[in-house]
Amino acid sequence: MYTLGTGVGSGVIVNGDLVYGHDGFAGECGHTTLIPGGRVCGCGALGHLEAYCSAPGMKRTAFELMAHYNAEDSMLADKSFKELTSKMIYEAAEKGDKIALEVFRKTGEYLGQGLADTVHHLAPEAIFLFGGPTAAGDYIFKPTYESMNRHLLPIFKDKIKILPSKLKLGDAAIVGASALVWKELEK
Ligand SMILES: [Zn+2]
What we know:
This protein is of the alpha/beta class. The chain has helices at 50-53, 55-69, 86-94, 98-122, 138-151, 172-186; strands at 2-4, 8-10, 13-14, 17-18, 126-130, 161-164. The radius of gyration is 17 Å and the shape is globular.
């Protein structure tokens, strides 16, 4: 499970159980190195997946692309760095904005590369995607799936599902927190 939001969170479920690791932090897939020497991640390290595939990562990609193409005619060009959101990028993509569409293509490319690493480590049946940017549906799922398959060993190609989470957006944190309480009570 990968969740795209202000950061990129992830969790690993094996035989129905969440993998905690020895002290509860297993599955920090957002902090795997995607681009050596790349963007500064929220954690301070360089080139982590989170710096590319989170909602702020998409915004950073949008500004890079606008600078690259000098895209003054993009619908995103009037937004300040502070105000641009992944939702605005989605809305512009819906209207056919080339920069916005390219942001989704690139984000999917980055994410698919990261998911391929996860597949190589774990050989999962499926990877669920959750979080604001995943509301964009095919804009994000399609390039992610294509990129993942391109980066996979032949033995995994076209075998791993990427599925949208059925969890409601606002519910994740409270469901997770409640589950932790139950886990403590079980001890
Ligand atoms: Zn990081």
